[in-house]
From TrEMBL:
This is Cbb3-type cytochrome c oxidase subunit. Gene3D superfamilies: 6.10.280.130, Cytochrome c-like domain. InterPro entries: CcoP_N, CcoP_N_sf, Cyt_c-like_dom, Cyt_c-like_dom_sf, Cyt_C_IC, Cyt_c_oxidase_cbb3_su3, Cytochrome_c_Oxidase_Subunit. Belongs to the CcoP / FixP family. PROSITE patterns: CYTC. Its cofactor is heme c. It is found in: Cell inner membrane. Binds 2 heme C groups per subunit. One of its GO terms (molecular function) is heme binding.
Length: 323
């Protein structure tokens, strides 16, 4: 925060408290010209106003709130850039990366700083760490049949994953549906865990310059034909020869490859839309999807539980549990 805004906020804050104090003092003085306890000659609906002073208990409480406000502003941050005498912080708000957060958090703890979020995280780790550690020792498929573990995994999912994949995990345009059996990098427990731990970065190159607009039109026709769509047969035939450039990732049969995160083009599951316009846009300009890595954010034990939950979304775990 700049010095100007720091001073501006401090002046307004302290000025408001001072103003409340002066108004209170003014109200304690009898400036009406009427003796205390006498009739003010104001009457409404049978109610007569009497010149009575403010109740003593009310006045004391008002003074107490003013004193408390000043003490609070002295101990905790609230006056612009003043950090407070206790050095308390809710969190490290100026950090720009996970690594920077961890470094500043460690430095604050070593210096005895009152970092609220860090202390709450330590308390949570002490309480819940052993639970996650015990879950991490179990096989993902086994964990996916444990109702209590799935409740934990669901909470982790809602807190960290639902912003992109939706609270029901059915995804949206550009973000995969996790409840079906269509996976870009594989739906096995190990593949899902790798995705969560390390993240993914999908790169579909733009083909506008290589194919030209007519070439893109031909490849779009052939691509749509792979999933049984009705297209111009001449365009599809011409696009088939050009598709050789796409086969390196999607395979000669168009069924995709987990190693590259290349989607299956023979079904009707489309990450960015399956209309002719959407597929044309994908080929013309390419796509770049990023799945963040959660290893440093959640830790491996929590990722293990989250893996079990994500895996369970596309599985019939009820039958597994009965076996």
């Amino acid at each position: 925060m700049s010095s100007f805004w720091s001073i501006w906020i401090s002046v307004i804050t302290l000025g408001t408290i001072l103003g409340c104090f002066l108004i209170l003092r003014w109200c304690l003085k009898n400036k009406t010209g009427v003796k205390e306890g006498d009739d003010m000659h104001h009457e409404f609906d049978g109610i007569v106003e009497i010149n009575n002073p403010l109740p003593r208990w009310w006045t004391i409480m008002f003074y107490a709130t003013i004193v408390w406000g000043l003490i609070y502003l002295a101990l905790y941050p609230g006056l612009g850039n003043f950090a407070g005498l206790l050095g308390w912080q809710s969190s490290i708000q100026d950090a720009r990366s996970v690594e920077e957060v961890q470094q500043k958090r460690q430095a604050a703890m070593e210096e005895g700083g009152l970092l609220q979020y860090a202390r709450e995280m330590e308390q949570a780790e002490e309480r819940f760490g052993p639970i996650f550690e015990a879950y991490a020792k179990r096989d993902v498929k086994d964990l996916a049949t444990d109702p209590e573990a799935l409740k934990v995994g669901q909470r982790l999912f809602i807190q960290n994953c639902s912003q992109c994949h939706g609270s029901d995990a059915r995804g949206m345009r550009g973000f995969p549906n996790l409840t079906d059996d269509d996976w870009l990098y594989g739906g096995s427990p190990s593949a899902i865990k790798t995705t969560l731990l390390q993240g993914r970065q999908g790169q579909m190159p733009a083909w506008k310059d290589a194919f030209g607009e007519q070439g893109v039109k031909e490849v779009v026709a052939y691509t749509l034909s792979l999933s049984g769509r009705k297209v111009d047969p001449k365009l599809a035939e011409a696009g088939e020869s050009r598709f050789a450039a796409c086969a390196a990732c999607h395979g000669q049969d168009g069924k995709g490859k987990y190693a590259f995160g290349a989607p299956n083009l023979t079904d009707n599951t489309w990450l960015y839309g399956g209309s002719e316009k959407a597929v044309t846009e994908t080929l013309m300009y390419g796509r770049n999807g990023v799945m963040p890595a959660w290893k440093d954010i959640l830790g491996e034990d929590k990722v293990h539980v989250l893996t079990a939950y994500v895996y369970s979304l596309s599985q019939d775990t009820s039958e597994q549990a009965q076996q």
